[in-house]
Amino acid sequence: MKNGVSLLCPTRGRPENAKTLLESFRKTVKRDNNELWFYIQDDDPKKDEYVKLFTEMNHKEYIVDYFTFTGHMWNRLADESKGDIIMLMGDDCVIETEHWDEKITKAVNPYPDCIYIVGVVDGRSKPGNPYGSCPFPAMHRRMKEILGYFYPLHFLHRYGDTYLIKLGEKLGRLIKMDQVLFRHLKSEYSKDETGKKSRQWTPYDKNSYEKGGRYFQQDFELLTDYKTK
Predict the structure, then answer these.
(1) Is 6:33 a contact under the CB 8 Å cutoff?
(2) Which of 46, 118, 126, 108 has the alpha carbon at shortest distance from 87?
(3) Which of the chain's termini has less CB crowding within 10 Å, N or C?
(4) How many Cβ atoms sit within 10 Å of the Cβ of residue 229?
């Protein structure tokens, strides 16, 4: 999908959240060349509810597959999707900015080499951290092909978003979309079963982030070779 944006959302045990996110996507998107993909795990007790929901909403962009770590789900969805721009998404989010797709595609136009990271705000901003706790980073599909991944392979669930934002900063290609709000819902979702599953990987991902500097440097050098001076 030329100039389209693909939102990639693993989800588990929260069909009501998926419905809210999908409704906000349809309400705010401007063009029809964008898509929202969901990954449903085949052991999810609410799998049938998801399938029923998507059938009723005539939504076909979803995968039902085996339980795995979230980073793999994001990469699998990136492979399935068709948009030029691919964006990390969570099921605890709603999109509040009208025509966000047009705003993002216009912002990346100055970079014909397609080397950039886009970050939007999530409503949890703090002084010195304009992206809040999770910036939902996006990249161009060409950048994914150069790196060999969308979500960094050495993270199971967490810290990959921070890694990508920092990579964009070091490249001098971080596009700050302060005018685009993808709002995180209440923090109570971090305490339900799905939230607990994701947080159990935090120590591993934290260690990978703190000690994986050589991977970061390799990615930076690889992208720099492709970047237009």
Answers:
(1) no
(2) 118
(3) C
(4) 4
Structure tokens at 204: 């591993």
From the list 6, 94, 17, the residue with the least C-alpha distance to 50 is 17
Q: Tell me how far apart the alpha carbons of residues 25 and 94 are, in angstroms, rounded to a whole number.
A: 8
- CA–CA distance, 2 with 96 (Å, rounded to integer): 24
Rounded Cα gap, residues 38 and 54, in angstroms: 10
Cα–Cα distances (Å) from 150 to 140, 157, 226, in that order, read 9, 13, 17
Nearest one of 148, 18, 140, 145 to 89, comparing CA atoms: 18
- CA torsion sign for 190, 130, 95, 151 is negative
pTM score of the predicted model: 0.91
Q: What pLDDT is attached to residue 224?
A: 95
Whole-angstrom CA distances from 25 to 93, 159, 169, 196 are 10, 25, 28, 26
Q: What DSSP designation does 182 have?
A: E
**What is the percent of the chain with per-residue pLDDT over 90, rounded to a whole number?**
72
Structure confidence by residue, pLDDT tens digits, 26-37? 999 999 999 999
pLDDT (tens digit, 9 = 90+) per residue, 93-126? 999 999 999 999 999 999 999 999 999 988 876 6
The two tokens of residue 58 are 């005539």
Under a CB-based contact definition with an 8 Å cutoff, are residues 183 and 125 in contact? no
Alpha-carbon Rg for the chain in angstroms = 17
Within 10 angstroms of residue 213's Cβ, the number of other Cβ atoms is 9
Q: How many CB atoms lie within 10 A of CB 129?
A: 10
State the pLDDT confidence band at 211, using cuts at 50, 70 and 90: confident
